[in-house]
Design brief:
Layout (H helix, E strand, L loop, with lengths): L9 H6 L2 H13 L11 E6 L3 H13 L3 E3 L8 E4 L7 H6 L3 E2 L6 H4 L1 H14 L12 E5 L6 H4 L1 H8 L8 E5 L9 E3 L3 H10 L5 E6 L6 E2 L2 E12 L3 E5 L3 E4 L12 H4 L3 H4 L7 H4 E3 L9 H22 L14 E10 L5 E8 L13 H17 L12 E6 L14
Parallel strand pairs: 1-2, 1-3, 3-4
Antiparallel strand pairs: 5-8, 6-7, 6-8, 9-10, 10-11, 10-12, 10-14, 11-16, 12-13, 14-15
Helix pairs in contact: 3-14
Length: about 425
């Protein structure tokens, strides 16, 4: 078939034989799935330049009975793109294509936008558990480099308040990844102004109160990376295994210039001269919290569930920030921090998370992608209310009733 991508070699023969077709028909029959002409094959186009992720995606596709690889997105029913701008959005809007990204989700994945929307939500709902999970945040918008002073007026007021003199702050670009542009500072206005003017191409920042009492394991700081899968409009799943990503060096709350002790992003830690993957990348369930360690890990995970559930609920009706289309799905990497009181803080949502950061020792990505693929195909293509094959790796944490989001019947055109 010309619709098969020859690049993938044996995958072609795997999907183009009578045995495979019969397997799919049997699969549908035993699970009560109506087989029509379209559902006999799901044509999938995958453009994923990262070999680590691509090989695991292809393996997941090959294990599902009705998936066929397409050599061009125009011939596909499902398009996986590393760069969402390459998705054929007109086909998505018409309902002819499933995409691995939502079209509108800047409210989640841009730090400044997320801070604005969630702060607005907690103002309206002061009883929300999110109120204790969001660091104090100031959004800095610099549309004109000549007006930096005006853009920093709110920050200057905060810094000049005597009650804030001992606060430590962390400065982050709103859209950058990989620890780019992150700085930890005290309430020093001139230092902040000088830092921002060094990055002329970055126009939006967040300045957050630095959580200076993080929970330490063996004297080192860590943050959690959770994998969250959103499907259609809208089911949200949290993967059972969360990563704990550590700093290489011991935490000191007197030396904030040492990024190897304070900035726990793995992409930064790998440059440490004594970097050891096994010391830096662990699972939440592996951590030693002392007595009742497993109970503590379970408590932290349940707090993560609550935070993620309420975050999505906070965006209900906020279509300019997040608008889940019924034939889209997306995997997010969510970063959270636990402090010494076991309070869990939401730091950020990341689109297109770097799955390779799990390293070579921890093997959770392959089964996670397989479970993700099964959920997506069952939900968006076979239109089943529940999965035919149990997906034990993902926990459903949010389900939009009647698949309505915001105004009834609203669509993107």
């Amino acid at each position: 078939s010309s619709g098969i991508n020859a690049e993938y070699g044996n995958t072609q023969s795997l999907h183009n034989n009578e045995s495979q077709a019969n397997t799919f028909l049997y699969y549908c029959a035993i699970n009560g799935i109506n087989v029509n002409s379209k559902s006999k094959s799901l044509y999938v186009f995958i453009h994923e330049p990262t070999e680590y992720t691509r090989t695991r995606l292809l393996d997941a596709v090959s294990r599902y009975p009705n998936c066929v690889l397409a050599n061009h997105p125009s011939f596909s029913d499902l398009q996986w793109e590393y760069d969402e701008s390459q998705i054929q959005w007109e086909r998505v809007f018409k309902g002819d294509l499933i995409a691995n990204s939502y079209y509108v989700r800047k409210g989640l994945i841009r730090k400044a936008q997320m801070a604005k929307y969630l702060t607005k939500y907690t103002w309206k709902h002061p009883e929300s558990s999110l109120k204790n999970s969001l660091p104090k945040t100031i959004v800095i918008d610099i549309s004109n480099p000549k007006e930096v002073g005006w853009a920093l007026s709110e920050v200057q007021d905060e810094f000049e308040d005597p009650s804030n003199s001992n606060i430590t702050w962390i400065l982050k670009p709103s859209m950058a990844n990989g620890a780019v542009g992150i700085h930890i500072i005290k309430s020093n206005y001139e230092e902040l102004k000088n830092l921002i003017t060094q990055y002329r191409d970055l126009q939006q920042w967040v300045l957050q109160e630095y959580i200076s009492n993080p929970l330490l394991i063996n004297t080192r700081k860590f943050h959690l990376r959770a994998y969250v899968l959103a499907i259609g409009n809208l089911s949200v799943y949290l993967y059972k295994d969360a990563l704990a990503l550590f700093a290489q060096e011991s935490y000191q709350n007197t030396d904030f210039n040492n990024k190897y002790a304070h900035i726990t992003n793995t992409c930064l830690q790998v440059s440490h001269p004594q970097f050891k993957e096994d010391d830096v990348v662990k699972l939440l369930t592996e951590l030693d919290f002392g007595l009742n360690s497993s109970s503590v890990a379970s408590l932290i995970f349940q707090k993560m569930v609550v935070i993620i559930r309420e975050t999505f609920f906070a965006f209900k009706g906020e279509m300019a920030g997040f608008f889940p289309l019924k034939n889209c799905f997306e995997l997010f990497g969510v970063d959270l921090l636990v402090d010494e009181t076991y309070n869990v803080w939401l730091l950020e949502f990341n689109s297109g998370p770097d799955l390779k950061q799990t390293g070579t020792r921890i093997n959770i990505i392959k089964p996670m992608i397989e479970d993700m693929w099964g959920l997506v195909v069952d939900s968006l293509y076979l239109k089943k209310e529940s999965c035919a094959i149990p997906r034990t790796g993902f926990e459903l944490v949010y389900q939009e009733e009647n698949n309505q989001w915001g105004s009834s019947g609203m669509t993107l055109t």
